Amino acid sequence: MTAPMDMMIPEGMEAKFTCTGTTDPDEVENLKITWKKDNQTINYELAQRVFQNEIDNSVTISGSIYLDTGKYTCVASNGLDSSEASAQLIVQGKLLSHHCSLLIRVFVSCRRFEV
Fold first, then answer.
1. Quick check: 85 and 71 in contact, CB under 8 A?
2. How is residue 19 annotated by DSSP?
3. For 90-110, how does the pLDDT look when each residue is reduced to its tens digit (9 = 90+)?
4. 34 close to 44: Cβ distance less than 8 angstroms
5. pTM of model > 0.85
6. Which helix (H) or strand (E) segment is 48 a member of?
7. Residue 24 and residue 82: Cα distance in Å, rounded?
8. Rounded Cα–Cα distance for residues 27 and 14 (Å)
9. Burial level of 106, CB count in 10 A (0-12/13-18/19+)?
10. How far apart are CA 15 and CA 87, in angstroms?
11. What is the pLDDT of residue 91?
12. CA–CA separation, 34 vs 64, rounded Å?
């Protein structure tokens, strides 16, 4: 099994994890790749920005937000046995860093004028 790679991306960008699995030649037709986020199977009907591509066994998160941060796990199964590999996605929020620096500046400004 080829594991997906950890990623750190800014909010709003696309994240794509790929995974490959191998099995005995007799079981190739039964090989299935599924994806989990934080140990829960991804429901693609509910996760409207998350798409699975069965051709390259990838999962893509479009327009990522901070809540997409987590552990993404690829599960390869042939019906007889299975194997898992995981990667971490960290989505860096743009607004959070801007608000923090703004709050720091306001705090420093207020402290300067205290008597």
1. no
2. -
3. 999 865 544 555 444 444 444
4. no
5. no
6. none
7. 12
8. 33
9. exposed
10. 12
11. 97
12. 20
Amino acid at 102: L
Cα Rg of the chain, angstroms: 20
Q: Would you give per-residue pLDDT tens digits along the chain (115 residues)?
A: 899 999 999 999 999 999 998 899 999 899 999 999 999 999 999 999 999 999 999 999 999 999 999 999 999 999 999 999 999 999 998 655 445 554 444 444 444 444 4
Q: Residue for token digits 């591509």?
A: 53
Contacts of residue 1, Cβ cutoff 8 Å, sequence gap at least 6: 19, 20, 21, 22, 74, 76, 83, 85
Residue 99 has, within 13 A of its CA and on its CB side, a CA count of 4
What CATH code is assigned to 7-112?
2.60.40.10
Strands (E), the chain: 7-10, 15-18, 32-37, 40-41, 50-53, 58-61, 70-77, 82-92
